[in-house]
Amino acid sequence: MPQDIALDIPFPTRINPLVKTVAARNERWLITEGLLSSQQNIERYRSWNIAKLAAGFLPDVCERELTFGLAVQSFFFFFDDLFDGALGHNPAATYEICHEMAALARQGTGTPAVAPSFPLARLWSSLWRRAEQGMSAAWRGRAVRHWEEYFLTYVSEAVNRKSGTALSMDSYMKLRRDGIGSQVVLDISERCGHFEAPPEIHQSMCMLEVRDITAEVVTLTNDLHSLEKDQANGDPNNAVLLLAREHSSSQEEAIVRLQRMVRRRTRRFQQLVIEVDRLCDAFGLTTEERENTHRFLDVNRACMRGNLDWSNNTARYSDIGVRHVIRSPRIEDVIAQT
């Protein structure tokens, strides 16, 4: 039912034409890495069609960069699914995993080496080494912070589940701005596109709000489409369910509220684009710096629209996907120490 509901995300659909080529390569890579170990799980992974998601986020990049961007997307899905089920209700075990991931993200030249201790950590480390090559210190600082915040959000979520904490919508949205992963997606889109918006633009309140809007629109879109999957997992922290509880309303009324929230955010985004142009004038940016700033705005549009287009069609949130979740919350158990 949620996959049929319209959301006001008024940006054009764009998809990289190399999507089929990189999808096949991505699947072979995951099999080689041991992340897909049975035909059943290969079929389950195919049904998610993550390649379309990456191709919507990165509509203009070359085959090599789309392949890399898709690899990062694959990591997100495997890592996120680790915490569906018992692990996501165990704060101590979740902390052990996520603290290691955050430490891996933080470490740099001159700091003690942190050795990844499980398969997904090793895979992430190899992706991160590739991601940071050729990028500025400012980009690396932002990306490290966003990865660390992303990883540690899972600990907060596990604590909330264990304690039975009922989050308000405001608290939930604040948590999900870091935990939905879109901040990292925006960083990776700069890396795959071989450009960076100027640091002063990135640090402006205007662009920080742009990024928050993107994260919130992606969160609301994701929660609408994953409603039945979350209910199958017994997870009450979904925007539709929280809105229904907070307003003592039906799910249908909560969905209308969610649609309005998305509409307000995309309209605010369009207002902020004008403010960004004024900032470019105030900072006296060069032509190239202005172009990179507008490319970054395009990356945000692609993130919001690409997520919606993918969510409308992926089987991850369909009846098929829900049946998979009931059978097993995780597509593969890759936490075991090796």
What general outline do the C-alpha atoms trace? globular
**Radius of gyration, CA atoms, in whole angstroms:** 19 Å
Ranges where pLDDT stays below 50 over 5 or more residues in a row are none
Largest sheet: none
The secondary structure category is mainly alpha
In short:
70% of the residues lie in helices and 0% in strands. The termini are far apart.
Question: Layout of helices and strands, plus pairs?
Answer:
Layout lengths: L18 H14 L6 H10 L1 H8 L5 H19 L9 H16 L12 H14 L4 H27 L5 H11 L2 H12 L5 H4 L2 H21 L1 H7 L5 H8 L4 H33 L3 H25 L7 H9 L11
Helix pairs in contact: 1-3, 1-4, 3-4, 3-15, 4-6, 4-9, 5-7, 7-8, 7-9, 8-11, 9-15, 11-12, 11-14, 11-15, 12-16, 13-14, 14-15
Task: Explain the overall architecture.
With about 350 residues, this protein is mostly helical. The chain is about 70% helix and about 0% strand. Helix 4 (about 65-80) packs antiparallel against helix 6 (about 120-130). It starts with 18 loop residues before the first helix and ends in an 11-residue tail after the last helix. About 40% of the residues are buried.
